[in-house]
Every structure is written in C-alpha cells, then in structure tokens.
Amino acid sequence: MKAKLIRALSYGGGLLIVSFGITMTILADLGTGAWDALNVGLAMKTPFTVGNWVIFIGIILIIVNALITRSRPIVLSLLTIVLLGYFIDFWLIVVFQHTLFSGLLLQLMILLLGIVILAFGASIYLQAEFALLPIDGFMFAIRDLLGVKIMIAKTIAELIALIVAFLFGGPIGVGTILVTFLLGPLIQWFFPRVGKKLNWKTAH
C-alpha cells in the first residue's frame, strides 16, 4: 500500500514539478525547449492555451507513435499529457498571470532555475514507471523505425519540433540550447539520488 502511494505521489507530484519548471523557462523569455516552443508558438497563433496544445500535440504523437510501431496507441499516456497540460495552464494563467521578468541576468537565473526544476521533476515522475510522455514515445519510435541510437533518435525528434516551432513563431533562443544540452545530464544526475530517497519498490 505504501509503495503504491509513493508511486502515485511520484507520478502526480513529479508532473506538477515538471510543469512548474517548464513554466519558468517560458516566463524567462529567452527561449524554451523545442517542444515547449512549439506549444507556445501554436498558442500564440490560436485561441487555445499552451496547456491545450500540450494535450493536442500529445494526442497526435500517440497516434503517430502507434502508426510507426504498428501497435496499439498507449492510452495511458493521455492521462500524463492531460495532467501536464492542465498543470502548465494552472501556473501560467492562475499563478503567474501577467508576470514579466526584465533584465538579462534575472531572466537567465529564472531560465536556469526552470531547467533544474524541470530535470528534478522529471527524475521524480520517471520513478513511478507509469505511462511515458508521448514525446518520449516518439523518440523510441524513431529509434525503432530508423534503427539508430537513442541519442540520434532524440536529436531527430527535437529537430522536427524545432522546425515546426520556428514556423509558428515559437520562442527559440539561448534557452533552447541550454535546455537541449543541460536537461539530459541533470536528469541523469538527479535520477539515482531521487530513487534512493523514494525507494518505493522496497516499501511495504
């Protein structure tokens, strides 16, 4: 019972922290990760919110992933993207509405803080070993389709998102570069340390 509770809290709490980190990178206004830039760009061009587009793009990727891998869509991933989408809108619309950060140094600090928080949240969410985000599923689908290494598949997926984000005027800048190169190593650093603290597999 305790293990299930820890797993549920890791899943929900981790996604909440991830959404806060993403929000910080958006509010820093120095550029966000490729997929977040795509969601922001689409939100700027349509009546829908950033969180809405997290859900819409997630649904599209669930379908695309199923077609590429010739398997059934991972329906559980819907819960992940719905939670993440609503959490992001909660921070952007309810908590930080009309919040603007000015000054390059402050913006850079907010951006770096957001990346660290995002990595920390991801390391918690991943401990639950529940449904992956469709973005991660897309990366694995590309790997299987092209027979390439996971880092190459990740690069291809990021480039696709970056190109579409650019076409829709998404926030691409120094933040995009920092997110791309810092996020992976930070998650790797946090993951085993968070795992030792949670240790839900041995909890009773």
Descriptive overview:
The chain is an all-alpha fold and about 200 residues long. The chain has one domain. The chain is built from 8 helices and no strands. The protein has helices at about 1-30, 35-45, 50-70, 75-95, 105-125, 135-145, 150-165, 175-200. Helix 1 (about 1-30) crosses helix 4, helix 2 runs parallel beside helix 7 (about 150-165) and helix 6 (about 135-145) packs across helix 7 (about 150-165). The longest helix has 27 residues, at about 1-30. The termini are close together. The mean pLDDT is about 90.
List the helices and strands and how they pair.
Elements: H1 2-28, H2 34-45, H3 50-69, H4 76-95, H5 104-127, H6 134-146, H7 150-167, H8 174-198
Helix pairs in contact: 1-4, 1-5, 2-3, 2-7, 3-4, 3-6, 5-8, 6-7
As for the number of domains, it is: 1
Mean of residue pLDDT values: 88
Structural class: mainly alpha
Tell me the number of strands: 0
The percentage helix is over 70%
Strand portion: under 5%
Q: Please state the overall shape, judged from the principal axes of the Cα atoms.
A: globular
Largest sheet: none
Number of separate helices: 8
Question: Any low-confidence stretches, pLDDT <50, length ≥5?
Answer: none
SSE order, as H and E?
Answer: HHHHHHHH
Report Rg: 17 Å
Straight-line N-to-C gap: 6 Å
